């Protein structure tokens, strides 16, 4: 059942323990140690509503009359409430509250508490909660530095305040060139854009501000976009430090600037690099960004989290595919900005809307659709017949304000935007500045048929605010780029998926005075979620390599959604590993994976030699004289990666893997393999026994077709112990078919 959260309703749970005194409404914890009773703490003091109306100044005078007589009353009074609560918040001792309770007008004293957050909403969707689990264990990412390569930062945004954030670790060597805003949260900021080195790296398009706050934004209460998705905004690692490297401007992201960003970030001492940009993949030994990422990740131990690209759902479109970076796909979450379309033929359709006017007509409204073959329902041009009607239009891009303006100018009262076939059920929120309901293709196409079949088609559109608990979730977004990667076919890319659809995060100043958050979609939004997760893992395992952290994230990810069904794609079919990667990230499991598939520089050298030879090794690996003839070259399939690709063709294909025990000292794992009936898969040995931490064990995986080879099948290999499940996707294919 869906949880409905109307935007006009909010509530606070007020709990108290009655103190044994003359006034039973004084709220204390009665087992407080005696030496604590004189220590001031924050209380919310609830008073009777004044019988006479008081202005702000007199109300504050009345509130202060309840405080003990002292010279520091102004400092004690923290908040004066007037609209939704009668009373104030102040720093008081228990004895002072007991004395206050004797005064006329006093009702209750509520000790200030940290309440469970109603987040906006990805941390909660990822299982991250204040005071519990991974957030508590990791100190919210304290001490870890995330370097963001993007379009800069909005330093005055409250997401980058440093409340609760300690100073950066001693290893930090960077600097902050901002004129204002540098603090314990925002510890570094510089521009690497050509000709802008002397300028502060202020964000002018919002992208860098959004991604930075998604990774490590601090807690900001009452955040929303146009009044929707309201809650407490927070990044995945709210108390991690941020170092900003501006590598993009309005003209794009020059590769030279991106490489300079890597260079500066590694020199400054970051632990994680978050990069939500990328181009068409090319050979790694000819790609400066891939080379820079190799040196950051493999040589310096910095995990590099990259967006997979937004060119889906076509295959062979994934970007940032080097095996030493974490490539992140985008998925949906269980929140909807709900609209409902009740069509005149009796169907009721769940829709999405960022434009929810309170005064939209409550009953049926006539529907209109363009009738010219040239326009093909795109609503770029409409006739006067739309006056007083709702136009049904195809949503052929993310920018709908042009269509809306056209319909509005012709007298229309609203729009129903129908997803394109390729978009399917992926509902990307669009701000149209006009009453609009967006519907999935499978629901919207029948609306078009209905309108074309009758002259008096109608629909009733209602708006329901923010809804949580929507299913299926997560699901792979239509735009998320798919693998396989042309230059590394035998490695499954993307690696993992994370929330990337309708993500609310910080935005640049200037839209409205009270609306500094925005909802955006893209793998650009997914990658910083994983950057934050990597920071949380790093905070608990500072000695783990980037490859180990990456393995932990991948092997503990979920291949099933919140209902326990296999994760779906935009068409409601099962998502392939080339769409979602190993699965959807599960941060709490990632810190305790049991086993990891680790890689060191020698492993990568063997892989690079096998792929590119001496020239490639020289280009990618720095500071070593490498002769590939002296190295045991690895094929791509043999690289010790957490996913497995086999191409048996007409013979058995065997690969080996090595896992490292990072779980209990004494542990035993038994293998379980699930593959289709069209293929034989065997694993040797079938049991792995460990007697110490960091012990390594190797195994082989072999595959052979039972009959005639087919293009591709998918399965999974799991090492199962009493406490852990270490899952690796398997793809068995014949690329020549």
Automatic annotation (TrEMBL):
<comment type="similarity">
    <text>Belongs to the peptidase S8 family.</text>
</comment>
<dbReference type="GO" id="GO:0005576">
    <property type="term" value="C:extracellular region"/>
</dbReference>
<dbReference type="Pfam" id="PF02225">
    <property type="entry name" value="PA"/>
</dbReference>
<keyword id="KW-0732">Signal</keyword>
<feature type="domain" description="PA">
    <location>
        <begin position="381"/>
        <end position="446"/>
    </location>
</feature>
<keyword id="KW-0720">Serine protease</keyword>
<protein>
    <submittedName>
        <fullName>Uncharacterized protein</fullName>
    </submittedName>
</protein>
<dbReference type="InterPro" id="IPR041469">
    <property type="entry name" value="Subtilisin-like_FN3"/>
</dbReference>
<feature type="domain" description="Inhibitor I9">
    <location>
        <begin position="42"/>
        <end position="118"/>
    </location>
</feature>
<dbReference type="InterPro" id="IPR023827">
    <property type="entry name" value="Peptidase_S8_Asp-AS"/>
</dbReference>
<dbReference type="InterPro" id="IPR003137">
    <property type="entry name" value="PA_domain"/>
</dbReference>
<feature type="signal peptide">
    <location>
        <begin position="1"/>
        <end position="22"/>
    </location>
</feature>
<dbReference type="Pfam" id="PF17766">
    <property type="entry name" value="fn3_6"/>
</dbReference>
<dbReference type="Pfam" id="PF05922">
    <property type="entry name" value="Inhibitor_I9"/>
</dbReference>
<dbReference type="InterPro" id="IPR015500">
    <property type="entry name" value="Peptidase_S8_subtilisin-rel"/>
</dbReference>
<keyword id="KW-0325">Glycoprotein</keyword>
<feature type="domain" description="Subtilisin-like protease fibronectin type-III">
    <location>
        <begin position="638"/>
        <end position="732"/>
    </location>
</feature>
<dbReference type="InterPro" id="IPR036852">
    <property type="entry name" value="Peptidase_S8/S53_dom_sf"/>
</dbReference>
<dbReference type="InterPro" id="IPR010259">
    <property type="entry name" value="S8pro/Inhibitor_I9"/>
</dbReference>
<feature type="active site" description="Charge relay system">
    <location>
        <position position="150"/>
    </location>
</feature>
<keyword id="KW-0645">Protease</keyword>
<dbReference type="InterPro" id="IPR034197">
    <property type="entry name" value="Peptidases_S8_3"/>
</dbReference>
<dbReference type="InterPro" id="IPR045051">
    <property type="entry name" value="SBT"/>
</dbReference>
<dbReference type="InterPro" id="IPR037045">
    <property type="entry name" value="S8pro/Inhibitor_I9_sf"/>
</dbReference>
<feature type="domain" description="Peptidase S8/S53">
    <location>
        <begin position="141"/>
        <end position="560"/>
    </location>
</feature>
<keyword id="KW-0378">Hydrolase</keyword>
<feature type="active site" description="Charge relay system">
    <location>
        <position position="207"/>
    </location>
</feature>
<dbReference type="GO" id="GO:0006508">
    <property type="term" value="P:proteolysis"/>
</dbReference>
<feature type="active site" description="Charge relay system">
    <location>
        <position position="524"/>
    </location>
</feature>
<dbReference type="Pfam" id="PF00082">
    <property type="entry name" value="Peptidase_S8"/>
</dbReference>
<dbReference type="GO" id="GO:0004252">
    <property type="term" value="F:serine-type endopeptidase activity"/>
</dbReference>
<dbReference type="InterPro" id="IPR000209">
    <property type="entry name" value="Peptidase_S8/S53_dom"/>
</dbReference>
């Amino acid at each position: 059942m869906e949880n409905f959260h109307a935007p006009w309703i909010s509530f606070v749970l007020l709990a108290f323990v009655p103190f044994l005194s003359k006034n039973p409404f004084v709220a204390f914890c009665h087992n407080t140690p005696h030496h604590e009773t004189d220590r001031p703490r924050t209380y919310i003091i609830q008073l009777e509503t004044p019988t006479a109306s008081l202005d702000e100044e007199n109300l504050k005078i009345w509130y202060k009359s309840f405080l003990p007589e002292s010279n520091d009353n102004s400092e004690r009074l923290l908040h004066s409430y007037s609209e939704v609560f009668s009373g104030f918040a102040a720093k008081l001792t228990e004895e002072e509250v007991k004395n206050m309770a004797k005064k006329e007008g006093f009702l209750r004293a509520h000790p200030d508490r940290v309440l469970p957050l109603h987040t906006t909403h990805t941390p909660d969707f990822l299982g991250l909660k204040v005071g519990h689990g991974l957030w508590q264990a990791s100190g919210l990412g304290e001490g870890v530095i995330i370097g963001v390569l993007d379009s800069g930062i909005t330093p005055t945004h409250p997401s980058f305040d440093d409340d609760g954030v300690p100073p950066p670790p001693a290893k930090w060597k960077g600097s902050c060139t901002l004129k204002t805003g540098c603090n314990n949260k925002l510890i570094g900021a510089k521009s690497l854009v050509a000709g802008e080195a002397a300028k502060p790296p202020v964000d002018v398009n919002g992208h860098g501000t959004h991604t930075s706050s998604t990774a490590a934004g601090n807690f900001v209460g009452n955040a929303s976009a146009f009044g929707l998705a309201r809650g407490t905004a927070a990044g995945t690692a709210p108390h991690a430090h941020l170092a900003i490297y501006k590598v993009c401007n309005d003209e794009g992201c020059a590769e030279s600037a991106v490489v300079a960003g890597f260079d500066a970030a590694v020199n400054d001492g970051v632990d994680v690099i978050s990069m939500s940009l990328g181009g068409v993949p090319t050979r790694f030994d000819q790609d400066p960004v891939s080379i820079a990422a190799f040196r950051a990740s493999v040589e310096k131990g910095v995990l590099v989290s990259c967006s997979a690209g937004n060119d889906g759902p076509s295959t062979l479109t994934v970007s940032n595919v080097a095996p030493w970076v974490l490539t992140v796909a985008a998925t949906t979450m269980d929140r909807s900005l709900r609209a409902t379309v009740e069509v005149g033929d009796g169907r009721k359709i769940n829709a999405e809307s960022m434009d929810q006017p309170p005064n939209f007509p409550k009953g049926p409204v006539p529907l209109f659709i363009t009738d010219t073959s040239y326009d093909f329902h795109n609503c770029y041009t409409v006739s006067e017949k739309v006056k007083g009607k709702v136009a049904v239009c195809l949503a052929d891009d993310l920018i709908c304000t042009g269509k809306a303006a056209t319909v509005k100018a012709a007298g229309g009262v609203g729009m129903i935007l129908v997803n394109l076939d390729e978009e399917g059920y992926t509902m990307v929120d669009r701000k149209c500045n006009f009453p609009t309901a967006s519907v999935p293709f499978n629901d919207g196409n029948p609306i078009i048929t209905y309108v074309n079949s009758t002259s008096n088609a109608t629909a009733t559109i209602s708006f329901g605010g923010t809804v949580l608990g929507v299913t299926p979730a997560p699901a792979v977004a239509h735009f998320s780029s798919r693998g396989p990667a042309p230059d590394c076919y035998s490695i499954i890319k993307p690696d993992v998926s994370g929330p990337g659809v309708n993500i609310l995060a910080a935005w640049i100043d200037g839209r409205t005075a009270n609306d500094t958050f925005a909802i955006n979609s893209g793998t650009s939004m997914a990658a910083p979620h994983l950057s934050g997760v990597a920071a949380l893992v790093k905070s608990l395992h500072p000695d783990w390599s980037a490859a180990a952290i990456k393995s932990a994230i991948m092997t503990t990810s979920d291949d099933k959604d919140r209902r326990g069904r296999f994760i779906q794609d935009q068409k409601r079919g099962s998502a392939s590993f080339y769409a979602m990667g190993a699965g959807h990230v599960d941060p709490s499991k990632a810190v305790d994976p049991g086993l990891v598939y680790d890689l060191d520089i020698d492993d990568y050298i063997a892989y690079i030699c096998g792929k590119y030879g001496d020239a490639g090794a020289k280009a990618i690996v720095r500071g070593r004289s490498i002769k590939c003839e002296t190295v045991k070259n690895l094929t791509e399939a043999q690289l010790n990666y957490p996913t497995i690709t086999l191409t048996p063709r007409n013979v058995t294909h065997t690969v080996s893997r090595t896992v490292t025990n990072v779980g209990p000292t004494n542990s035993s794992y038994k293998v379980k393999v699930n593959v289709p009936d069209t293929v034989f898969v065997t694993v040797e040995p079938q049991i792995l026994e460990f007697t110490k931490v960091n012990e390594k064990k190797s195994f082989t995986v072999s595959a052979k077709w039972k009959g005639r080879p087919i293009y591709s099948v998918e399965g999974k290999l799991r090492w199962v112990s009493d406490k852990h499940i270490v899952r690796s996707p398997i793809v068995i294919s014949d690329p020549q078919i």
